[in-house]
Amino acid sequence: MQDIDYRFCPLCGGSLAERLLKPREPKRLVCTDCGFIFYIDPKLAVLALIPLQGGIVLVRRSIEPGYGLWVVPGGFVDLGETVEEAVVREAQEETGLTVRVERLLKVYSYRHSRTVLLAYVTRRLDGELVAGDEELEARVFAPRDIPWSLIAFSSSRDSLKDFFSLSP
Ligand SMILES: [Zn+2]
Prior knowledge:
With 168 residues, the chain is mainly β. The chain has helices at 83-95, 154-163; strands at 16-19, 28-31, 37-38, 43-49, 51-52, 55-61, 70-71, 74-76, 98-108, 115-126, 135-141.
């Protein structure tokens, strides 16, 4: 797991301490003053696989983590939107393209990561490919040209492999 270093109770400001509440579950952060249990839950994110011109759209990150590396467009699902809406929003923000969700490719989760990713195959409806605020560039890669050694995240690598049905 990535380090999450919460120290204070969000309800009363008391100190949080790690406690084993149930034998078969992980330790929980518990407020030593009011007893509030601070559950650290998975975060939900989406990936938008956008086929275009016989290839796939990738974006190069201009922020950490993964600065300068390529990823499948995507991001965290906001509270109050559906996952499909998040796919359309993130695709628009990161590539300038208006897409429609076609189908769920696969769900990815990793023991070392807090993020659960839903990868969707989309179809471009409109728009020109342009990099968003958090990208250095956006471009289409033919399957044989995908820069595997410069892909930032396991989820991007795994979803590209699954999309193109390559063996890992
Ligand atoms: Zn408290």
